[in-house]
Each structure stands twice: as structure tokens, then as C-alpha cells.
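To: structure subgroup
Subject: Chain for Friday's discussion

All,

I'm putting the inputs and outputs inline so they're searchable in the archive.
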Amino acid sequence: MTKTLHIIPGYGHNVEMPEYKKIGKCAQEKGYHVLYESINWTQPISKQIIKLKKTDVVFGFSLGATIARLSYQKTPCKKIILASNTPLYRMTKKILLKATCKNMALTDDIILIKNRLLQSKLTVTSCVYLSGDRENLRGKKIKGTNHALSKLYIQTICDLL
């Protein structure tokens, strides 16, 4: 059986960035088939849910971790790695508008997602939360980083596969 890893980049990122390619290379070396999920950050993210299989592993960074979580809620999978997950519960509409460069459609979509996620619990035992050591987020803290996929952050992700 082929193992599959879905890689979902963070807001404003794309799957061609070296950090995501390094994670993909590591996964391939461990026998994974890697699917790099391209996200159109100008479109509502609720319409960009990733189709998963129960045997898949999904990795998401920042707002990509939110897409990973939404995808998991639709189809639970083997493991989900949420790295520097965007803390939607702390974000107001004003903050979101600034963060999305005043993209009202995306902001409104994120607010709807925020409300849906706040009403649900992620009840997977194979869910791993990671965050930079200077981020005020839940999960295992990765030293010497902030909200970026550093060398140590990437190695930690690879070790989890």
C-alpha cells in the first residue's frame, strides 16, 4: 500500500517554495507519494478542501493547517500535522482584513470557518500540533524559529512522518 502525504502551504506561500520541497523530498525518501496541494489564496478556502483517504497523512502550515483541519473533518485520515496553525479564535474581522490585503470574500469565508471550527473539536489521536518557539500557539515548540519553516522545523516534521 502506498503512503500518501498531502502538503498544504501557508497563506501567500506556494508549493514550489524550497521549504515545502524539502518536506516532500524527505517524505519521498520515507516511501511516501507526495501530493503538493496548490491553494489559490484569492479564493475562499472553504471551497478548497483537500480530498483525503483514510490512510493519508496531511501536513499544513499556518492557514494551510486550517485547510488541513477542514479536510480532516470532512474525511478523517491516518495523521494530521498542523504547523503554526493560524489562531482563528483570536482574529477579528479587522485583523483578518489587514492580513488578507482587504480581500473581503476571503475574510468573510475565514470568519465562517472560524465559527464552524470553534463549534467543533478535533478528536483525532494522531493529530500533532507544532509551533515556533516565539509563537503563542499550542503544540510542540520548535526552537530558534518563529512563524517560518526553519531547518529544525522541517526536520521535526520529517521525523513525524
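Points worth raising on Friday:
The chain has one domain: 3-160.
The first helix runs from residue 18 to 29.

D.
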